[in-house]
Amino acid sequence: MTTRKLAALIAALGTFLGLNGCAARRLQPKTTLVVWGLEFGDETKGLEAEIDAFEKMHPGVAVSVLSMGAGSMNPQKLMTAIVGGTPPDVIRQDRFTIGDWAIRDAFTPLDGFLAHENSGPFAVRPADYYAPCWREATFTNPFTHQSSVYAIPTSTDDRALLFNKTLFRQAGIVDSRGHARPPQTWDELYADAVKLTQFNGNGGYTRIGFIPNYGNAWLYLYSWENDGSFLSPDGRTCTLASPANVGALQYMVKMYDALGGVDRVSAFQSGFQENELDPFLTGQVAMKVDDSGVAESIARYGPDLDFGVAPAPVPAARLALTGRFKHDTDRFVTWSGGYSFAIPRGARHLRLAWQFIQWMCSPQAALVDARAQQAYNRSKQRAFVPGMSANRLATAAVFAKYMPANPRFRAAMEGFLKLLPHARFRPVTFVGQRLWDEQVRAFDNATHHRTTGMTPRAALTRSAAVVQRELDAAWSVRRLPRIHRPVIVAFWVLCGAILLYCIASVWVRVARLRRLARAEAIAGYLFAAPWLVGLVGLTLGPIVVSLALSFCSYDVLHPARWAGLQNYTQLLGQDRYYLLTSLNNVLYIAAIGIPLGIATGLAVAMLLNAKVSGMSFYRTCFYLPSIVPVVASALLWWWLLNGDPNRGLVDAAWQLTLGHWFGLKPPGWFNVPEWAKPGLILQGLWGAGSGMILWLAGLQGIPQHLYEVASLDGANWWRKFVHVTVPMLSPYILFNLVMGTIGALQEFDRVYVLSGGDPSSSVGPVDSLLMPVIYLFKNAFQYFKMGYASAIAWILFVIILVLTLIQLKLAPLWVYYEGEKK
What we know:
The protein has about 800 residues and is of the alpha+beta class. The protein has 35 helices and 15 strands. Helix 23 (about 515-550) packs across helix 35 and helix 30 packs across helix 32 (about 715-745). Mean pLDDT is about 85; it is low at about 5-25.
C-alpha cells in the first residue's frame, strides 16, 4: 500500500470516527434546566430571546419553562415540589415573599456563589443593583442573626401618580400657564378627586376622580408617605397600629366617604376591564397611583392618551420640611416591587442554575430582551416602552438605546426612573404574607366602617395583634420539643397494631362461619379489598396523621414539634374572630339557603311530575345546570351578579325595572357585605336541578290512593300537600337537610373561585364570604401552619358530627316512614 493510500485511509477513518462522535453527541440527551414562574406568550418575545441566547451559550442545555402560577402568589405547587424532592432548578419569585421562604430553608443561600463562582462578563455585583431591590432579596434570620442573599433581583418597578391631562384641563385644574397641574399633597389630591368625579342620574358614576386603592398603592404607600412603618427595626414587633399608619388609613377612609362610600365605589370599580377598555384610558378614572409597567400598556392600547406622571402626593407637612431632604425628589415616596430568581432547596443543577440567573439578570440579557421585544412591537405597528431592571447598569443600557421617542412616554419613564433610587419596599420578614393579608383586612374593615363599626385605629389594632401573635409564636415554637424519629416509629407501630387487630378480628369472625357462608364472606372481602386498601392508605391514614398533627406545630419542611392543645386554645381563644366569622357566614347560608334550596327543588319536581307532553325535555333543561362545572358556574354568576349595572346582567335588569320605577339602587351583590351571601345563595339555587331528581323519585313513590282518600275527605290541594306530600317526603327532607348542612360547612370551591384565589385574607367584603374550609386552606397552604389547619379540620369535624347527630336524634319526631306505626 502506498503512502498516499495509507494517508487517505487514515483520513477516511478519522472522518468516520469524527462523524460517529458527532452523531453520538447529538444522540446524547441534553441537560434540562427546569425554570418555574416564567410564561411564554405573544408579549414575551424578549424573554424567549434571552432563553434562546442562554441555550446557544450552553449547547448541551435545554431550558424547560413552566408557569403553573408557581412562585409569586401561588406557593402550593412549589412547596409540594420541594417536599416531594422534585423542585425546579430556578424559580422566579416575588421579592416580598423571600423572607417567608428563607425562614423555612426552602431556598438555597447564594452567598457561596457570589463569593466563589461570580466572575466573567455576567458577574453579579451588589453595587450594580438598586439598593431597595437588593435589600428586599436579602434576609436576616432573626434567630441566628445571619444575613444571606436568597435571590437575585431581576425586574422592578415603582409607583407614581398617573393623571389624564385632558380631564384636568376640562375641570380647570391648571397652573398659571394653563397646563394640567397634578396634586402634590393629600389635601390637593382630595380636592381634585372630588372635583373630577361625575355622577349619573341613576346614582352611579360616569367618572371618578381618584380611588385610593385602585392601581397599585395599598396602605403600604400611604403609610410610608406619612413616615410610617410596619415592623420595628429588629423585626420582632408589629407597628401596624402606629399613629402614622392610623393617620394614613384615616385619609383613605375620608377619601372613600367623600366619593360616596366604599360600597358605591367598589360597585363602580367591579365593572372595570383591562387592555383597550382600561378605565384610565377610557376616561372613567381621572388619576391613579400605579406602577411603571402601566406605561407599556398605555403605549399599546391608548397611544394618543394625553397623560402625565408625577410623584404620588404626600402629606403637606412632609413637603414643608424642606431642610430635611437633600434632593427635591426625596420629599416624595415611591414603592418598589418586582421579581427575583432563586434556587429552591434540592435543585439538581445548582451551578447551571446559578449561570442561568447570572445571565438573566445581566445588562447583556436585558439588551437582548429589549431588542427582540422592540422588533415584535414594530411588526405589530405599535410603540415599545422598555421595562425597568433591578440592575442599574441594565436599566441604563436599555434606556440609553431604547428610550421611547414619544415625548409623553419618555417623560413618563424619566419620572419613574428618577424616583426609583429612593423607593421603599415591603419588610423582609417571615410573616410577610400574614402582614400583607392583615393590612388588607384592616383597610377593608375601616373603609366599611358603616357595616363593621370599626375606626381605622380599631381595625389596625386588631390586625396588628394577629401579626404580633405570629411573631411571638415563631420564638415560642423553637422552645417546643421536637418529635424525634423513635416517637414517629412508635406511633406507626401502634397504628399498625390496631390495624392488625382489626384484620384479626374480621378473620376470627369469618372463621367461625359455616363453610358456605365463610366462602361467600371471603369472596366479598376479596372483591372489597381494593377499596379497603384505598380507604386505609389514602383516607384513614391521612385522617390519623391529621389528628396527630393537630397537637403539633408543623410547617412541612421542618420536623414537627409537640404543641399539645396550643392549636386548639389559640383557635378557640385568640383567633376565635375568624372561626366565629366563618361559622356565622355558614349559619346565614344554612338558615336561608338550605330551606330555599329544598323548596326550589321540590317546587321544580312537582311541576315536572305533571303528565304533559315534552316533559322529558323540560326535565333535561332543569337538570343541565347541575352538571356545569363549579368553576364555570361560579364565573358565570360572577358576571351575572357583577355590582356594576353596565356589566352585571342582573343589576342591569334591576336598574331598568326597580331602579327606574321605584328608584331602588342595585344591590351590588359580591361587592357589598350585606349582599355577598345572598348572591352565593342565589347562585346555589341555580343548581337545584340536581336535587330535583331525588324529589321527583320521592313524588312518584307516593301511593296515589292516599290522594284519592284525601279527595274523598274534601281536602283541597294545599291540605293534600301538607298532610300527604310533606309527610311522605319527610325522609327526603331529612336527607337534604343533613347533606345541605354538611355541604354548607364544607363550602370552598365557589368562594375560592369568586375570590380569584387571591392570597389576600379578606374573602368577600369584610370577610363576608370567609368559610371554615377557606380559613383552613389559607393556614395550611399560604402560611403552612399544618398543625393549626389540622386543628381547624377536627373542630369542623366535631361540629358536623354534633349537628348531624342532633338532626338524626330529632328525626323520629317529624320524619315518617311508610309502614311505620306512630
